[in-house]
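Continuing from the previous page...

OK, I double-checked the sequence for Rossmann fold nucleotide-binding protein Smf possibly involved in DNA uptake against my notes and this is the correct one:
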Amino acid sequence: MLMDELLTDELISAWWRLRQLPGFGTVTTNELLDQLGSPRALLRCDRQQLRSLGLSDTAIERWQFDENLSNGLDNLLNWRRQSGSGVLMVGTKDYPEALASLRDAPTFLYYSGNVQALQRPMIAMVGSRHPTPYGRQWARECAAELAASGITVVSGLALGIDGEAHEGAVRRGSTIAVLGSGPDQIYPARHLGLAHRICDQGILLSEFAPGVTPQARHFPSRNRIISGMTLATIVVEADIKSGTMITARLAAEQGREVFALPGVVSNPLSRGPHQLIREGAALIENANDVLGELGLDIPAPQTNAEQQSLELESPLFENDQANTEFVETETITLREALRVKSPAPKAKPKAPRIAESVDVTSNSQNAVEVPELVTCIDYTTTSIDLIAIRSNLQMARLLPELLQLELDGWLQQQPGGYARIK
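Thanks. Re-ran it with the corrected sequence; updated structure tokens here:
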């Protein structure tokens, strides 16, 4: 299939209407496209040729004359005309080539940002929404090094590892956030500022049309795009039963490389990566390992100053009290976002703290909420001074809270500090 064909409103209209016919899902549509050889060939087909492709006379009549099949088309075309926004179609220019090779490749992709990010080699990084400080820092630093070497880092804009991957990459190069909502619906809303920065050098990408809000059923579909459009998927901290592990298995099924970061055996989030390594995933320790496995150029070593900058300046690594302006299930549109001024670096929100609700992507009905202070502590000994820095708590308040968490079974006191035990 040719991938350099220019996308026009005429092409979009023809294939959009076809997709609305009963029985024309992504797989059927892609099979038809393979028979035609190019998207534009559909416009040249007469009735007899359409019949030979498997369309019934009823389907042909509806495709040509039923105005109901154009519902939603104006929304798509209007989005395409907006500055900084666009639509990609399988088989046409700029559509990710690796993704187009899948039987269930989305017919249309909607984006906001810089489409040039799709022209670079792409690597996915995924992991837990509740990672350890070690996982957060490793993801951010590895993503930064990959981006600096010319790689576009792909993830899902979720809390945790996804956010860290985007945060690291956007500082040194480009990143793509694949959404489970329309590209104008920022979820979670606390990643509004990050989404704006992504659009400068990368893009927000989705198979869901503008205006579509996030739904739990969208995220498995989103995951196949993350793995399918990339050369490889890196797994950083994940439980055995998690969406991250599903993404990793999708990557393997799609013929992509899978890399896993080993972790401390006492950390439950090490179980996913360790299981993947047992099943044949490549064990990696840094960005050079990833690039070497893929046969790509090795980046220049990062300086100590750059590493310190990444560790200390990342808003995602600070105490989550700085990120509680929105509940997790809240979505904010880019249009609304344009009316929101970006806060000064590290400024505390003026809005009162809002209790967070369960993420819509969660499959667990009985998930235990992890106390905020626990997320600042590693499964290996973490010094009290480092816990104080990460939590932004004064010692007079920190020490009683650590004692209570120890009594509640979350922590264990060690020589030199505390270690998380669950």
